[in-house]
Amino acid sequence: MTGYKYVMIITDREYSGDFEEFLKGRGVKNIIETLANGTAMPSVLDSFGLEKTEKIILGFIAEGGKAAEIKKGLYEEMNLAAAGGGIAVILPIDGIGGESSLKYFSEETDKGERKAMENTDYKCVMLTVIADKGNSDTVMEAARGAGATGGTVVRAKGTGAAIAKFFGITISADKEIIYIVAKREKRDDIMHAIMEKAGKNSGAHGIVFSLPIDAVAGIAGMDAEA
Q: Do residues 159 and 135 touch, judged by C-beta distance below 8 A?
């Protein structure tokens, strides 16, 4: 068991279609897209007569071996190492909120929460919740009831055939991603609460997974514990 990974690819928006085609050709079921901007200094852009570059972030879950295969393909086929080609970040997943969340991204049918994960030497996690647009309040109400202190909401868009129909339910392509930082011992309670109130059987059609955090700054009670 090599565990599951969360893969983030950041590239210019104009190349999003090429990367989607590349990923779907490797069996990636669902991709969550988020718009972003480059961070070049205005003075540098002005010097070259350029405008700020619009970026796209493509996020998805893959089994460890598949993630390694995709990484290799990004270099060999998508020329990711070239200047301006983009970057990719691969993160170990600490936990997945049940079979429904795992099945959303993968053909696997085992209980996501029971999957063996690689990294266990940490004390905080970042829970990532993907839900239909307009349901962030429902997600956060459930999370706070289980001990979460707050979260950050990002607008996104889902792609892929399974977005349109998931477990026989029509799902909006417009998504909200809610990031919640929490202590590791509260992880399971928060994930269970979210899946109960905002999971696949609710109007939110939410899924949730957890990423390990090495360090935290600026959150009371967690700064010295990560």
A: no
